Amino acid sequence: MNFNSSTSHLPESLLPSEASPEWNNKADNAWQLTAATLVGLQSVPGLVILYGSMVKRKWAVNSAFMALYAFAAVLICWVLWAHRMAFGTKLMPFVGKPNNALTEKFLLAQSSTHDYFPMADFVFYQFAFAAITVVLLAGSLLGRMNFYAWMMFVPMWLTLSYTIGAFSIWGNGFLEQKIIDYAGGFVIHLSSGVAGNKVPIALPKWVGTNGQGLG
Q1: Residue 118 — φ and ψ, nearest 5°?
Q2: Which of 4, 50, 141, 190 is the most exposed place for a label (fewest CB within 10 A)?
Q3: DSSP class of 118
Q4: Degrees (nearest 5) of the Cα angle 78, 158, 199?
Q5: Could you tell me which residues come within 8 angstroms of residue 38 by beta carbon, excluding any fewer than 6 positions away?
Q6: How confident is the model at residue 13 (pLDDT cuts 50, 70, 90)?
Q7: How far is CA 195 from CA 7, 65, 135, in A?
Q8: What does each C-alpha distance from 66 to 45, 60, 86 come to in angstroms?
Q9: Closest listed residue to residue 19, CA positions, set 123, 118, 121
């Protein structure tokens, strides 16, 4: 393979190859994976430990598993349909066409013309943010929602709420040119906060140890 002058001075391990095409910047690739891992660690074990320690002993395991289940369930939903709904081809002004993000051709392609890492990195990176959004939402439901109900709630909320916000602002949606959201203030914190405030309204009141209603 012929290399241009801009890469000829690099060590052999950093030169483009069949496994690492010219558009793949190994530094960008490494940082993308590092950033995604740091976000993931905030959820598991971070919030799993926090939630398990902030409720009564009888709710500790249930609360920890609510966070752990959300993280695992979001991963499955994300690669099967949710990633394409949030960052795929436009279906409507606020959501993309659902499709899987599992094929080799899709995952090994360049993420975009402005990014220098493969799509697999981007899918993993955005999954970490989707997962922590749902796990943050779980904090408002500790000790209040049945675990089986939570199992159904997670994929439904991810599909019907998170993907819409992500596509509208981060994807190719109608708010992309109107809102700048680099840190996830709207897509992550606002969506999980609003849902965490409204969902408990539909749940039975939680009575504390002093007999005072807490919700």
Answers
A1: -75, 160
A2: 4
A3: B
A4: 160
A5: none
A6: low
A7: 49, 20, 12
A8: 12, 10, 24
A9: 118
Computed over every residue of the chain, the mean pLDDT equals 87
Rounded to an integer, the average pLDDT of 54-81 is: 92
The predicted model gives 67-95 an average pLDDT of 96
DSSP string, 191-214: HHHHHHHHGGGGSPPPB-TTS-B-
DSSP state of 159: I
Confidence (pLDDT) at 7:
56
Interacting residues of 191 by C-beta distance below 8 A, sequence separation 6+: 133, 161, 162, 165
pLDDT tens by residue, 83-130: 999 999 999 999 999 999 999 999 999 998 788 999 999 999 999 999
Output phi, psi for 125, to 5 deg.
-65, -45
> Rounded to whole angstroms, how far apart are CA atoms 177 and 108?
28
